Amino acid sequence: MMAYDWAINGRPYDPKTILPVHAGERVRLRFVNRPLMWHPMRLHGQTFALTAGGIREDTAIVLPNSNVEADFDAGNLGLWMIHCHDVYHAEVGMMTTLGYVQS
């Protein structure tokens, strides 16, 4: 299998790195996929609405060479993972932690 360097925001997973959000904030996630593979991107602890329409969900398929945008209203306090649901991709770096911070 060919090795890949999977990342979110250009960085592989680091448990010390938190994507900060504030309770009540509307957050837009933008998933950009350049490789020729599908990525089922999962957000734990929240549901989001795809800006292209459709039902609320917690996982979005990001097709090769495409972008997906999703909005959610931050309201479930805690630390939550965002990751590719392909376990290999997540384990080699395609995940991060979303965390609530006080204003």
TrEMBL record:
Residues 2-97 form the Plastocyanin-like domain. SUPFAM superfamilies: Cupredoxins. PROSITE patterns: MULTICOPPER_OXIDASE1, MULTICOPPER_OXIDASE2. Keywords: Metal-binding. It comes from the Bacteria. The keyword Metal-binding applies. One of its GO terms (molecular function) is oxidoreductase activity. InterPro entries: Cu-oxidase_C, Cu_oxidase_CS, Cu_oxidase_Cu_BS, Cupredoxin. This is Multicopper oxidase. It comes from Microbispora rosea.
